[in-house]
Structure formats: C-alpha cells, structure tokens
Design brief:
The chain is an alpha+beta fold. The longest helix has 25 residues, at 418-442.
C-alpha cells in the first residue's frame, strides 16, 4: 500500500464510497500526507482519490457512515465524500488524529532554551510532535513525556527525579527513573543459584512494587488494581514495555500510580529500567467535577512516556535488523556463549531472527531425536520443517552436541587444564538448557514440545515399536532417548572441573527406591526448566511405576524425589507450573504424600511474597487435609499455624480466602484449635472483620466458620467488647451481605457457638428470630436447617425469646420443613422447651 501512494500509511479500511451519486468499494488509507482512496483490488488509486488534510474542512460520523467536507479551494470536483463501513471501526478516530497531527505540525513551535549549549545540542535532533493540543514536553534522564501546559516545575530536577504541579487545579506529578539493571546475571544461566549467589540483585516484580505502595498508603479505597496496557509508541521503541497501574482514593486525594518496566533496552538488549509516575489530585480540586476527563489526562501523560536514546528515533521497519548488524559481533558472541535468559532468547529469535551460529546443529539434534521415535508419534510437518541440509547427518543426537562444543572450543586434548574444563562444562550445561527451550518453544512453537519424549518413554512397550523388530534394537533406541532426556535435565556435580555423566540420573533415581531413601543434593546442580517439564509430563513418576505397584509400605519414592527437587528450585514461574500438577491428586490422598506436605510448608514460608504460589500451596494443603487426620497432625507439627495466622493479614483477598478455607479443615479438634489460639489468632480475626465486614461477605462467612470451631475449644479468651463486636458483625452480615445458603449456614454456626450472656441472648433473638422463620420457609438445605434449629434451641435459654418464638410462629415454620433423624430430634426438643417456658401464656389465656 505504501508503494501505491508514496506515503507512510498509518491505517486502512475497506469502505463503500459515495460521491456525486456514484458508488464504489475502495480502501481508504490514512497516511501522513493525507487520505487516499485505492481500488478494491489494490491495483491503483481512484481518480481524484487523494486529499491533503488541509483540504478537509470537517469530518462527521453518523452511525457507520463518515462524511468528509472538501474545501472548494482544493481544486477538487468533490465537495463531500461519504464512506460507509459494515460496522463501527476506528476509521473516524484515525482521521481525527491525523487532522490534529497536521494542525500541530503547522502550528507547533519549540520553546527557546535559556542555555546556548542546550540549543547547540538540540539543533541536530528531530522535532517531536505533541500528541494533543494544550500539552507540553518534559524531558528527564533519557525519557520524555507530555503534560498539560498548566503544569510547572515546583522543585529542582535532581538526577532521575522530577516534580510538576498544577497549582490552580491542585494536581501534582512525581516521576522517578531508576537506574538500569541487567536482565540476568550471565554467570547464573541454567545453574542452581543457592550454591553461587549472583552479584546482581533479583528484579522485584511490578506487582510487589504495587503492594509496597498500597502498604505505605495505609487505609484507602482501591479503584483500579491491575496490569496496564501502554498503547503509545511515539518513536518506534524496540524495547518491550510492561506496566502495573493503581488508582486509589484516600481521605484527602485521588492518587494514581503507573509503574513501568522497560526491558531489552538497545543496543545490547540486556538491560531493563523501571520508571514510576505518581499523580495526586486533591478531592477539593476543580478537576474532580469531571473525573473521567481527569483520568483520561492522567492516562495520556502516562502513555506518552517515551525513551529518547539514539536507537529509537523514527526508524523504518528494518530498524531492528539494522541495529543488530551494527552490534552483531557483540550480541552474537554473547548469544553463542548462551549468556542470556529464556525470555531474551525468545525476544531475539522472534523480533530479529537472531539465533546462535550453531542453530542448524541444534535443529539436527532435534531431528535425530525425533527419528528415534515411531513414525506415528511425530507430526510429518515437524520433520519437514526441521529437515535442513547440512554437512553433518547422524543418527546419534549426541554427535551434534560434540560438534557444537568443537565449534565453540575446538577439539582439545584429553588433558585439559582445570579452568578450560570448567568453562566447557558450564557451557555444556547452558547448551542443554537452551536445547530444552528450543524443543519446547523456539523451534516449532506449539507443534513440538518435550512432552513427545516423555509420552513415548512412559508408554513404550517392546511390541509397540513398529520401526524395528529386534528387542536388541529397541533397547538401543530407548537407551539413546533416555540419555538425551538425562542430558537435557543435566544432573551434574557442582564442581565443574568434573565431567558430566548421564549415570548420575540413574543413581539419583535408584537412591529413592529403598524405604526412607534419599540423595545428598548438596553437591549437585541441574537445569530447572527441563527438570520441571519432566515432572509435569510424568517422566519421574514413570521411573518408579514398578516400585509403586509392588510397594506395601507408606514410602513413595516419586513423592520424595519431587519434594527434594522442589526444595532446589529458585524460579517462581517454574514453581507455579509444577505445583499446579498437585492440585489434581484425587481423594482420598495416600499417606505416602507426607514428604510432599513438609516440602509445601517450607515453600509456603519461602514464597510468602508471591501471592500466586501462596494460593496454590494453600489450596494443595486444603486438599490434603480433607478428612485426613494424619495430614492435619503433620501440618500442625510442622508449624503451619503460625504461617496461616500471618497470611490472614495479607493484602491479597485470594490469600485470605485460601487461608481461611485451610483453617476450616484443620481447626476441628481441640489440639489443632489450641495451636492457633495459643499464637494469638483472635486478634487477627478482629482485624479481618473490621476490614471486610461490609466489603467481602465470602471472607466474613469463612471467618465465621473458623471462629465457630475455635469457640468449641473451651480455652478461647476474649474481652466482652471483642465478643460483642464479633456477634454484631455476624448479625449485620446475615441480614445485609449473605448471598447463598452456604454463607448463611456459616454465619448461623458462629452465632450458635459464640459464648453469650443473658443480654446477648436477647439481642440475638431480637435480630434473628423473624429472619430465621422466613428463611426456614425458603431454604431446605439440611446443614442450614440443623444450624438454625440449634441456634433456636440455644436462644430458648431466655424466656423472652421463647415468647417471641410463639408469637412469630417458629414452631409452625419448623413443622413445614422436611426433617431427617437429627433435625427431628432437635425440632422435638425445641418444641418441648418452648411449650414448657411459655405455659404462663396458656394459663393467662
């Protein structure tokens, strides 16, 4: 399209054009120089089908029809042009933006700088167009953004900090540009960091930044809390942007936070940088009368944040490849040595097609592995795409590994010096990690994954192998596949002067085959990505299939091995993927999973700042503790009570919910209840009730269920004010917030179990009796009926309540409810007590 109009095209749509009573289908191109109409076949432009923006006097939209008014001075025979679309599109918006941009190009003038030196520096720079009229450009430490021209500097610009303020509207902006950081520590790629600490700090997650901001604000109403999509790219920035956004209302102001992370910064694409923007508008600001307009202004300023380094200024579509050619040697050397992390490999591969110089050998390795499998296991399309002519062609995949190392280090003698051995062995481990990533993602996307190896190894039987006939050959091929799998996982000594051996995997697996067996992991490292994928796809559990079928004890070698492996992981994403597999364990759960339970509790403490992992682990523990006393005892013994009490005060609702669900399971016996009460759980419940009583009924209902069980312990100690507050919250939630019969039942259970004085009995009766009568006519849930009858039975301790029950028709309502054996006994006892305590009314009558 660009070649048809000799202009830079920003947008295009297929429309029905109406002009001078004629109709035609055409493409309308919104370009930098004007609008162009192109034939539907994209062969040429229409006659008199180009209009400069100066010639367009107005643009109007009526439904799906856009009308352009053409100036008579333009020399065109057309005065009006109608363009119809089958549905609403962005065409109208794009035309309006183009018209504004043309206006700004002709009207905008750069402000004069006070410094002659700054003028000299800016003479050679390209002028930047303002995105909207009424905004001005602000530059700070390699970045610029746009704000309303009513903002002024109210503090000195110091390094990477700046403060702007609109005094008339009571709005302030604070911008902080942090120092750049390396994306990864090259020395640690593919290795277990517990043995060798990186010299670079680990990047804090943007989500964790947002949690610390909320913590500093204290009590506030969160209006927006989530990922933000930065849409503006004003200078074709090659880097990748991500952002987290918070919009919060405090007692005095409306505060918006945008936390940006700019990754893969040119020219080496190995740096990242964080930028935070804070907007604060007083609730007394005149702008608060139009909150939507204020929020649009805030979003525009945040969206306009742009880097001004020399690698990003208005390049054409081939900028990345041009830039990579300029820094080819530096990038290629690091890439050949595999000195990046997984996301960086994917970025270079997908954005610029940059791969290691031995990429064909990796494809050959993968192809030779696939050829070890039966034809019906492999998609022919994958074989066709990987089949690349090369000098080397071998049926042994490890031949390609040997050639890669020979290409990088040459073919040395058998007596290598220790430093060279260490260098080669470290590269060998990184190479195995990179190949696993290539098979799983980089080579063929979703068409190929490591699962194809594990599925075949797990289901392979001699008779199923169609490619050959002799068992000797079958064993040979299977041994090759197993050695490839062992190489990708790459268990090896932490002493890199020692050679890698695939036999270490066999020794590790065999060490867990005996009861209470195990392995000393202190001197072993491995590739976490490949190991996690093998766990996901069932490779390790298949290694113990025979032992587990013949086992007569509670020892589970697979669970013990995986528990030890999980203790070694240091990657949050890998941990999430592996842990989700344990959510699918069916009930009832075998006691052989106890070693995994201990590992989960340790991880719950280690990953306390990662809410996703905390929620997953807590959900797994909830499944384990369902109707299983041995798992509950083991949890309490390993100190889960203190962890759960801490998580009750988490700022994440999902963590609080999952924590309370687990507490319901493990607070059913006096010993378990005492473990929580002795660590001060009651004070945390008061905090939860104060925070959520009018906001999250699900949390209140789960809290009621746990409190009801804790009241059974007999050692719960609390002040009268605390007890009264708990009952008030339950009464309020029952009438205002309860949404289903399950939540109503939990609230009734807490009211039933809470210790009550005489006055409290009367108060609960005054608020609950009429509601229970109505609910008994609506709900037929057995648990609800039992809780309601038990609460009514307890309220009969006061004669006033019994009189009210007679007057409200409680007995008539109970008589209409279908009852089981338990509820029949409760109903009879309730009737007997009400009749006995209200005889005085009968005698009076």
């Amino acid at each position: 399209m660009v070649s048809l109009v000799s202009d830079r095209v920003r947008h295009f749509e297929l429309v029905k054009v109406t002009s001078n009573a004629s109709h035609a289908k055409a493409y309308v191109l919104v370009a930098d120089g004007g609008l162009h109409l192109v034939t539907g076949s994209l062969s040429s432009t229409l006659k008199s089908g180009s209009f400069k923006y100066e010639a367009i006097t107005s643009v109007e939209q009526n439904g799906n029809v856009i009308t352009l008014q053409i100036s008579p001075d333009a020399g065109s025979s057309l005065q009006a042009l109608e363009m119809g679309t089958p549905r609403r599109t962005q065409l109208y918006t794009k035309i309006k933006i183009a018209l504004r941009a043309r206006y700004m190009l002709s009207e905008y003038k750069e402000e004069e700088n006070s410094s002659d030196e700054e003028n000299d520096e800016n003479d050679g720079q390209e002028r930047t167009l303002l995105p909207f009229k009424g905004y001005k450009k602000v530059t700070l430490t390699g970045y610029f953004f746009f704000v309303r021209d009513t903002f002024e500097h109210t503090s000195f610009t110091s390094g990477s900090l700046i403060r702007l303020q609109d005094i008339g509207r009571c709005i302030s902006i604070n911008v902080n540009v942090r120092d750049t950081m390396p994306l990864n520590s090259p020395e640690m790629v593919g290795e277990y960091v517990a043995f060798k600490k990186s010299s670079q700090p680990k990047h804090q997650d943007l989500y964790q930044y947002s949690r610390s901001i909320l913590h500093e604000l204290g009590t506030a109403e969160v209006l927006v809390d989530g990922v933000y999509n930065k849409r503006m790219n004003l200078n074709n920035d090659l880097a990748s942007w991500s952002c987290y956004h918070l919009l919060v209302r405090t007692d005095t102001s409306l505060v918006a936070f945008f936390i940006f992370r700019r990754m893969y910064i040119p020219p080496m694409f190995d740096k990242c940088q964080d930028i935070s923007i804070r907007f604060s508008a007083s609730l007394r600001s005149p702008a608060m009368s139009h909150v939507s307009a204020l929020y649009n202004e805030i979003s525009t300023t945040a969206n306009s944040l742009t880097a001004v380094d020399e690698y990003n200024m208005w390049y054409d579509a081939l900028i990345l490849r041009t830039l990579l050619r300029r820094y080819k040697d530096l990038i290629q050397v690091r890439l050949d040595n595999l000195r990046f992390d997984h996301p960086m490999y994917a970025f270079l591969k997908r954005q610029g097609g940059v791969v290691p110089s031995y990429h064909k050998l990796i494809k050959g390795f993968t192809l030779s592995v696939l050829r070890l499998l039966p034809p019906d296991f492999v998609d022919p399309y994958v074989i066709q795409q990987l089949n690349d002519p090369m000098v080397l062609a071998s049926d042994d995949p490890m031949d390609y590994i040997y050639n890669v190392k020979a290409l990088m280090f040459g073919i040395g003698s058998s007596e290598e010096i220790p430093d060279r051995k260490e260098l080669m062995n470290r590269f060998d481990m990184r190479l195995a990690d990179y190949i696993a990533l290539c098979i799983d993602d980089l080579l063929m996307g979703h068409h190929l994954s490591l699962a194809i190896l594990t599925r075949y190894l797990n289901c392979m039987e001699d008779s199923a192998y169609k490619k050959v006939n002799t068992k000797l050959t079958i064993a040979h091929y299977l041994q090759k596949l197993r050695s490839v799998t062992a190489y990708l996982i790459h268990f090896r000594p932490i002493d890199f002067t020692k050679a890698y051996s695939p036999l270490l995997l066999d020794r590790i697996i065999e060490s867990y085959c005996v009861d209470s067996g195990g392995f000393n992991w202190s001197g072993v490292v491995f590739n976490h990505y490949a190991a996690s994928r093998m766990i996901e796809e069932g490779f390790f559990i298949h290694q113990y299939a025979k032992d587990m079928r013949n086992a007569h004890s509670e020892w589970n070698p697979y669970v013990s091995l995986v528990s030890d492996l999980l203790d070694k992981y240091n990657d949050d994403l890998i941990m999430e993927r592996v842990l989700k597999k344990f959510l699918d364990i069916p009930q009832p759960i075998d006691p052989s999973y106890l070693p995994l339970l201990k590992c989960m509790i340790r991880m719950l403490r280690r990953y306390s700042m990662n809410y996703k992992i905390v929620v997953i682990i807590t959900s797994i523990l909830t499944n384990f503790s369902f109707n299983s006393k041995i798992f509950k005892d083991h949890m309490i013994k390993n100190g889960v009570a203190t962890l759960l009490i801490e998580n009750m005060l988490s700022g994440e609702d999902q963590i609080v919910l999952s924590t309370l669900k687990l507490m319901i399971n493990i607070t059913k016996t006096p010993d378990h209840q005492n473990a929580f009460i002795s660590h001060g759980v009651m004070s945390n419940f008061i905090v939860i009730l104060e925070k959520y009583y009018a906001k999250n009924i699900e949390i209140i209902a789960l809290s009621a269920a746990v409190l009801g069980q804790l009241f059974n312990s007999g050692i719960m100690r609390m002040t009268s004010k605390q007890l009264e507050y708990i009952i008030d919250v339950m009464l309020f939630s029952y009438h205002i917030g309860a949404q289903d019969v399950g939540q109503i039942g939990m609230l009734l259970f807490c009211l039933k179990k809470a210790p009550k004085t005489g006055a409290m009995h009367i108060k609960v009766g005054q608020h609950m009796l009429r509601s229970i009568v109505v609910d008994l006519k609506v709900y037929r849930d057995e648990a609800f009926v039992v809780n309601a009858l038990e609460l009514l039975l307890e309220l009969t301790a006061r004669v006033q309540n019994c009189i009210a029950m007679r007057q409200l028709g409680v007995l008539e309502a109970v008589a209409q409810v279908p009852l089981n054996d338990t509820s029949v006994q409760l109903a009879n006892k309730l009737k007997e007590r009400i009749v006995r305590r209200t005889r005085c009314l009968e005698s009076t009558v």
